[in-house]
TrEMBL record:
Annotated localization: Membrane
Membrane-spanning residues: 20-40, 46-70
UniProt keyword annotations, A-Z: Membrane, Mitochondrion, NAD, Translocase, Transmembrane, Transmembrane helix
Protein name per its UniProtKB record: NADH-ubiquinone oxidoreductase chain 4L
Positions in coiled-coil regions: none
Length: 89
């Protein structure tokens, strides 16, 4: 359900890069919760480790996105999504 709302927000408010980072973080957290739920239902120890790996990748993705945002804000002064697009649409 959170994935649906994050995709709706992504389709309607994609002007700023920070909004995209928040949506991707929410989607990563939803995948983490889904993996945790599956591991508790199946009583699997491997599912817990897999969910921690998913959470680690999600945090690394967020940190890299924030670094890109800060770098672009210092270099160009703009944080719009269109400033990151090479296609220009």
């Amino acid at each position: 359900m959170f994935v649906f709302f994050s995709l709706v927000h992504f389709m309607t408010h994609f002007n700023f890069f920070m909004n995209l980072l928040l949506v991707f973080e929410l989607m990563g957290f939803c995948v983490f919760l889904f993996c945790m739920n599956l591991s508790f239902v199946s009583f699997s120890e491997m599912g817990l480790y897999f969910s921690i790996v998913i959470l680690t990748f999600s945090v690394c993705e967020t940190v890299l996105g924030m670094a890109l945002l800060v770098s672009a804000a210092r270099y160009t002064g703009r944080v719009n999504v269109k400033s990151f697009s090479f296609l220009g649409f």
